[in-house]
Amino acid sequence: MADTPTDPTASPAPQDPPAPAPPPGSPVGELTLCPLGFEHLAAVLDLGHRVYDTDAMPYTGWSLSAVAGHLDAPDPACFVLLDGDRVAGFVLGSLSFEQRADWGYLEWIAVDPDYQGRGVASRLVRECCARLAEAGAVCVVTDVERRNTASAELMRRNGFAEEASVSLFVRPLAEAPAAGTGRAGGGSGPRRHLTRAAAERVR
Questions:
Q1: Are 143 and 200 in contact, with CB atoms under 8 Å apart?
Q2: For residue 89, what are the β-bridge partners?
Q3: DSSP the chain
Q4: 83 near 111, Cβ under 8 Å?
Q5: Residue 52 C-alpha from the chain's centroid
Q6: Could you point out which of 17, 54, 59, 151 has its C-alpha 20 to 30 Å from the C-alpha of 190?
Q7: Would you state the pLDDT for residue 199?
Q8: What is the largest CA-CA distance in the chain?
Q9: CB atoms < 10 A from the CB of 47, how many?
Q10: Are 13 and 159 in contact (CB under 8 A)?
Q11: Beta strands 139-141 and 100-111, pairing class
Q12: What percent of the chain shows pLDDT beyond 70?
């Protein structure tokens, strides 16, 4: 994965190439940008868990409280793109990264597969970065799991550059749960983030 700071006040990054016409049966119409609200939480969680393999990296799993906590943030940079009442994509951002209060953090972004390839992800990235810049961020950081080449390319198209890479070292233990269970003991408690810099599989 890579921490990828970018200057949100820099010149706009190149736009996505025009998307091809959607295939028959795919969603059509203008998408509406809205701030994340309580009414979107269930759809955001459902979409995130459909798009991401939350067992592949243990700190990509999100709970309701983790997502809802953004609604109380002083400078939220969280948006949904709606096709009518349907959430086509979302982005969660916050002002602060680790100990840097002047660095914005693009935490999680996902696009419904029916809407991928139509510039939805880039629009969400731009909106999130613009809001963080208004809140005082001097750069924005995000993380991409190293095998997620599509997400890495999305970020490069939108002005991010790879600055550092971090390897996740894992030591299996005898009492660890079987692969794929996602939490010790099979309990129902919320997952804990292993690091603030979550490795989102952005699309």
A1: yes
A2: 81, 111
A3: -EE--B-TTSPPPPPPPPPPPPPTTS--S--EEEE--GGGHHHHHHHHHHHS-TTTSGGG---HHHHHGGGG-SS---EEEEETTEEEEEEEEEEEETTEEEEEEEEEEEE-GGGTTTTHHHHHHHHHHHHHHHTT-SEEE-EE-TT-HHHHHHHHHTT----EE--------TTSPPTT--SGGG--SPP--SSSS------
A4: no
A5: 10
A6: 151
A7: 33
A8: 53
A9: 21
A10: yes
A11: parallel
A12: 67
Residues 177-202: pLDDT tens digits? 665 554 433 333 333 232 233 333 33
Query: How far apart (Å, rounded) are the C-alpha atoms in residues 119 and 61?
Result: 25
Distance CA 131, CA 192 (A): 27
pLDDT at position 83 is: 96
Degrees to nearest 5, angle at CA 89 with 87 and 90:
100
Q: Dihedrals φ, ψ of 179, to 5°?
A: -55, 135
What b/e sequence results for 77-92 when a residue is b if at least 16 CB atoms lie within 10 Å of its CB, and e otherwise?
Answer: bbbbbbbeeebbbbbb
- Tokens 């991409």 belong to 144
Q: At 2, is the pLDDT very low, low, confident or very high (cuts 50, 70, 90)? A: very low
CA-based nearest residue to 38, from 76, 4, 12, 3: 76
- How is residue 155 written in tokens? 């970020």
Question: What's the token pair of residue 144?
Answer: 């991409």
User: Tokens for 31?
Assistant: 């998408």
Retrieve residue 85's tokens.
Answer: 């009442």
Please check the confidence at residue 89 and state whether its pLDDT lies above 50: yes
Burial class (CB in 10 A: 0-12, 13-18, 19+), 68: middle
| Residues 36, 65: Cα–Cα separation, whole Å | 14
